[in-house]
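Suppose a colleague, Dr. K., hands you the sequence of a protein chain of 299 amino acids and asks what its three-dimensional shape might be. Before reaching for any lab equipment, you can write down a predicted structure in token form. Begin with the sequence itself:
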Amino acid sequence: MKNLNNMRLLLCLLLISLQSCGQTGNSVAKMETYDQFRTQKIELRDSLFVLYTVREWSKHNWYTFEDFSKMYKMTNEQVQYFLGGTFYSPDKKKILVWIGDKEPNAASLEMTRFKPELNRICPTGGDTIYSMTALIGFRDSTNQTWKLYPFNQQQATCYDTKEEVINVLGQYYFGQMKKHQMYRMMQSGKKKGHKELQAYGYNLQDKGFWNKCWLWQKDTVGSYGLYPFQIKGYDCDKENYQIISDTYPDQKKDETNGEYVARHGRIVRKPLREKLKDCAEPYKPPVVDYPEEILKLYK
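The predicted structure, expressed as tokens, is then:
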């Protein structure tokens, strides 16, 4: 029975992925959907893998991937996921994919707004809404599954059409990304170990994106060799990772516990981190139990 259910789900995911590859409609012909850059076709196995991943993350209500049934009068089965664009590195060991969702603009389970008609997912949206974000990932071999992470540097939410959300992401990834600044842990030079704002330096279609953009340079200073997109944020850097914010001079040594430590005759709170490498807070995606029907496609 489990295998039968898995097969039904895979067929459903396949239909969704095939639908997402269609051309834009005539009704929005003037809207830029960046077809000249969205030319790569996603492999069938990757399509199934990505769609299954997002659906499972949503079931876990993890990060920005919602379990809509917890807050709205709808089921998760009413959410239709689709792929808006897939981008592989030349060696196909790196990937960035736009993942969208279409769902009814369902009413909220709890009425929190004054006007009843505003108590739904998108208060001013239509009856059907579209949203889109991105995933980024890597693998060591083309015969391996992907290690995927959320990459929500640009999101589109509460739009009326698929073309509109593609347009929003296209504007960012093909025109604005290279100038977008994000914090990163500096890896060398005088600023080594310090958090600094730094522009990505490349748009997605640029030749050097896959091998020169700092997104693909592992952090060996503020983390244990993670890519920047594997890191949710940094709790500290070289300037403050050993800072002790509170002291307890009146506390006796035998009253200490794991949170406090004796230092210079005083009982003080432990430093933020013992090592600079501990400053990074990694993303921790839910563990996904993939069907064998998907996994065998990578063998």
